[in-house]
Design a protein that fits this description.
Helix content is about 45%, strand content about 10%. The chain has about 650 residues and is α/β, with parallel strands linked by helices. It folds into 3 domains: about 325 residues, 2-enoyl-CoA Hydratase, Chain A, domain 1, CATH 3.90.226; about 160 residues, 3-Layer(aba) Sandwich (Rossmann fold); about 120 residues, Orthogonal Bundle (N-(1-d-carboxylethyl)-l-norvaline Dehydrogenase, domain 2), CATH 1.10.1040. Helix 17 runs parallel beside helix 21.
Length: about 650
């Protein structure tokens, strides 16, 4: 079942979050799908308005799905989170500036990322069950997704109170604080939505609105103004600590649960935003300064650990004594320079992409480019295509007139053949971006042919498998000129989570084969160790618990564990259905040894890994299985076999 239902009626674009069992928490893929739909409908004259709602009674959207942020961050990969936030913030800005009415129905919990989705439209509707909050400080973030804009506009110092405590607003509170526009009883929502779908004016919303009960938050405002008017977190704490009231005691309890660094930065951001220069762009820029640094320098990973991983609710915050130095706040909120948030996106450009090779990897990559708004025309010798991609009848047809030609091909010989076909018809200055994994010599030969044709060239093999291609979380290892790499970067940002410029043409392939030689050898070692542990009577989970946090830590163990039911979800949990097929590992190991022989490099472990995978694929039953299926191979064998 899909996590989100996107459709259109005669007059309305409809987006329904469909993860009620997860409180409709928004995943990265959901974010991209919503943005793509909004982009389409903005240009569609048949669509008069957009309606956002969600399945289930408990939540419109209780936040973002942060488990993957933790997993990637703990592995030292901060780029995924940075990209997630940048793309999510771009969506928040689009909703805020959307040229058509956006009506959101906010039942149950609307928190964190749900605020960014549901509280920036033109008509924000709450009902009896609505509970809206910005609880990010509880996991080491500041209120984001444009939430600081609403907090800065809230009455008096209510924004500081909501942002630092995570106070849950009822419907009347949400109206008072500026997070909602109308209270309408929830049993009236289906009929109201039906009328909007049938072409009714948005004026029917105002006529259906009622007055909710009194706002408890409004009643607290005098106390809030007295205690939250200081210049920083320390001032707020000082006034609360010298007050014996119930409000002060209750508020201190709430603050002591949260990250001191995040709360101090929240107060500082709100103070910076207030005034005549306040804008959504400025709010998102300041939020991104913090979130960009949150995993590496903030408390986010510890906050997620305590809240959803270990669930011990005892985070070990920086500055646990609540004495946050001003310099620490300044460092988290410094401008990011070249890494600064930009709200411009490739989706609205007119870039034409010719995509050659729509196989298991190429098809989802091409589909992601199309979803982002690029015009993609694709060709595959097997006649396959991809969602949103226009089908060409030949490689030449795909390449003619393209700004970028992207290829994903099986081997170097085919790459050379395709290049000889398409380079003569490509326009001067265009980019030939090859994402295949091929031998270094082929990459360099095509690069030279591209130079001769006045075409830019980048070799950028990928890591991440079919799952990463579908999710848009690939890592690209790129070789080529700096100028060509920058031309390719917007596509990397759509299809992947990270792109590394490794050097001159061929350097991307060199990095890929070195990486996969390590991967092949470490996967074999990991499988051997599990097989040994089995025969020693050691429980697999216990082994994982030790190795994954000790010197045996590796990607093969921690992120792609070959033992079913152990560690994060992996192909082992799906009967070794390939995420990265054993025959592809065999191919890459063969390329590594070909390269090693060419430069006279001694690689005995790589050579042995190649021999083992060759036997596994060609002589045993490894073809068509994931490369981690080496584990059952070893468990079934004795030392003498």
């Amino acid at each position: 079942m899909s996590d989100i239902v996107i459709r259109q009626t005669a007059h309305a674009g409809r987006i329904t979050l469909a993860r009620p069992e997860a409180l409709n928490a928004m995943t990265y893929e959901m974010c991209l799908q919503i943005e793509a739909a909004l982009d389409r409908w903005a240009r569609d004259e048949r669509i008069a308005l957009v309606v956002l709602d969600a399945e289930g009674d408990k939540a419109f959207c209780a936040g973002g799905d942060i488990a993957q942020l933790y997993e990637t961050g703990m592995a030292g990969d901060y780029a995924f989170g940075q990209r997630f936030w940048a793309d999510e913030y771009r969506l928040n800005a689009k909703i805020f500036n959307y040229p058509k009415p956006v009506i959101s129905f906010l039942q149950g919990f609307t928190m964190g990322g749900g605020v960014g989705l549901g509280c920036h439209g033109t008509h924000r509707i709450v009902g009896e069950s609505s509970r809206i909050a910005m609880p990010e400080c509880g996991i080491g973030l500041i209120p984001d997704v444009g939430g600081t804009l609403i907090l800065a506009l809230a009455p008096g110092r209510v924004g500081e109170y909501l942002g630092t405590t995570g106070y849950r607003m009822g419907p009347a509170d949400a109206l008072f604080a500026g997070f909602a526009d109308h209270f309408i009883p929830q049993d009236a929502w289906p009929g109201l939505i039906a009328q909007l779908e049938d072409g009714a004016s948005v004026d029917i919303i105002k006529h259906a609105a009622q007055d909710p009960d009194a706002s408890a938050l409004a009643d607290l405002q005098p106390e809030i103004e007295r205690h939250f008017a200081g210049e920083g977190l320390s001032d707020i704490l000082t006034t609360l600590q010298t007050d014996d009231s119930d409000f002060a005691k209750d508020t201190l309890k709430l603050l002591h649960r949260n990250s001191p660094l995040a709360m101090a930065c929240t107060v500082e951001v709100l103070h910076r935003l207030r005034g005549p220069t306040l804008s959504m762009a400025k709010a998102l820029d300041h939020e991104y300064r913090f979130t960009y640094r949150a995993m590496q320098h903030g408390d986010l990973l510890e906050g997620i650990r305590a809240a959803i991983i270990d669930k011990d609710r005892t985070p070990k915050w920086q500055y646990a004594d609540m004495r946050v130095p001003a310099i620490a706040v300044s460092k988290m909120l410094m401008p990011l320079g070249k890494n600064a948030l930009t709200l411009e996106d490739v989706a609205m450009t007119k870039t034409n992409v010719g995509f050659i090779g729509l196989g298991n990897m190429g098809a989802p990559m091409a589909a992601n480019l199309a979803k982002a708004g690029l015009h993609v025309i694709g060709y595959d010798t097997a006649g396959t295509t991809a969602e949103g991609v226009t089908q060409a009848q030949s490689a030449i047809e795909a390449a003619q007139g393209a700004d970028i030609v992207l290829s994903m091909l099986p081997n170097g010989a085919i790459l050379r053949d395709v290049a000889s076909t398409v380079l003569p018809v490509m326009k001067p200055g265009a980019l030939f971006l090859d994402c295949s994994t091929v031998d270094v010599d082929s990459a360099r030969a095509v690069a030279q042919a591209a130079r001769d044709a006045s075409v830019q060239f980048v070799d950028a093999p990928v890591s991440g498998g079919v799952g990463g291609a579908a999710a848009g979380t690939l890592t690209f290892m790129a070789g080529g000129s700096a100028e060509a790499f920058e031309t390719a970067r917007p596509l990397f940002d759509i299809m992947g989570q990270k792109a590394v410029h490794c050097g001159a043409p061929g350097a991307g392939q060199a990095a890929k084969i070195c990486n996969n030689m390590i991967l092949g050898a470490t996967m074999i070692a990991t499988c051997e160790a599990f097989a040994l542990a089995d025969k020693l009577g050691l429980d697999r989970q216990k082994m994982f618990d030790v190795v994954s946090t000790s010197s045996g830590y590796s990607w093969s163990m921690n992120a792609y564990c070959p033992a079913p039911g152990v560690g994060p979800q992996s192909p082992a949990d799906n009967d070794y259905t390939p995420g990265f097929a054993a025959e592809l590992m065999l191919k890459d190991l063969g390329l590594s040894q070909q390269a090693a022989e060419a430069v006279d490099a001694d690689t005995p472990m790589g050579a042995r890994a190649l021999a083992l995978y060759r036997a596994f694929v060609e002589e045993e039953d490894g073809r068509g299985k994931d490369f981690s299926a080496m584990l059952p191979r070893f468990t079934q064998r004795s030392r003498t076999e």
